[in-house]
Amino acid sequence: MTEATVSSQPVHLIRPGKPAEPDAPRWPRPAVLALFELPFNDLLYRAQQVHRQHFDANEVQRSTLLSIKTGGCPEDCSYCPQSVHYDTGVQAGKLLDVDEVRRAAAAAKEQGASRFCMGAAWRAPKDRDIEKVVELVRAVKDLGLETCCTLGMLTDRQARALKEAGLDYYNHNLDTAPEAYGRIISTRDYQDRLDTLEHVRAAGMHVCCGGIVGMGESREERAGLIAQLANMDPYPESVPINHLVQVEGTPLHGLDPLDPLEFVRTIAVARITMPTARVRLSAGRQQMSEAVQALCFLAGANSIFYGDKLLTTGNPDWERDQSLFAKLGLRSC
């Protein structure tokens, strides 16, 4: 099977409950599941081959994520401590002002970040919210950083406004496989996710889209998530793979944790099926040992979030990352 290439055409996705497009998907779900089921060494060897065809295997892109509006979200995502439906101790806050964001972005650049991401706990921002975010995007762009936002569901007009402000990436994760989505979230459906991604692509922005593993899903459902991502046309330029961070008070707290090697398998399968994407270690990295992180880089991960926090949960600090990079001979890019 040949790996997919990135095209410049509008995004097309395999929609749950609808017949497949006349052209067969690049990565049928059974083929993705077959990758998951390879012997571990064979899977990592194949992932390394693909990775080295498209990237310097020892370079890792660093991003910083700042929560610009924390808590008070009306969605009921079972994994999220920012939901108003759960008592997690996260207090709702106001949108940060331009000066606060500019200072945070400047500090991130000083510590080696090339991309600055801003997240707001909204179901869907109002137009007046977008006007304020536009100011933040411009302030960060003025520092010479790439910009990314995750703000919830967007209309086509809002997506165009962000693009005109200079936003480079928009993050909107699929979270999980289509058939598992209803177990995790009830206040929106999968189609809402797909619609926003189409607005982002139509506006000309890059797509940052991945998911969360360790939410009680089966391996087949993990394969379903990767198949959805890999069969986008084009597939996302940035693919964050999050390991569930269990927060007391959320419905998913207390689940049996995902085996670390299964997480590494997920990274490897994402790399093979989306060869030119930045595959990012995102939430859950603080709980990973250095050995597991090293395996993830070997499997094709080449982007990380770093800093004190990832929205509201902990993240490895700068000094620990510097030490790990030195041990592995990795460089920032």
Folded structure, characterized:
The protein has 11 helices and 12 strands. Helices cover 38% and strands 15% of the residues. The N terminus is likely disordered. It has 333 residues and is an alpha/beta fold.
Instruction: Sketch the topology as an H/E string, one letter per element.
Output: HHEHEHEHEHHEEHEHEHEEEHE
The tally of beta strands, per DSSP, is 12
Strand content: 15-25%
Q: Termini separation (Å)? A: 30 Å
Mean pLDDT: 88
Largest sheet: 10 strands, parallel
What is the molecular shape? globular
The helical percent reads 25-40%
Label this structure with key terms.
15% strand, 12 strands, 333 residues, alpha/beta, two-stranded antiparallel ribbon, single chain, disordered N terminus, 11 helices, ten-stranded parallel sheet
Give a quick precis of the structure.
The chain has 333 residues and is an alpha/beta fold.
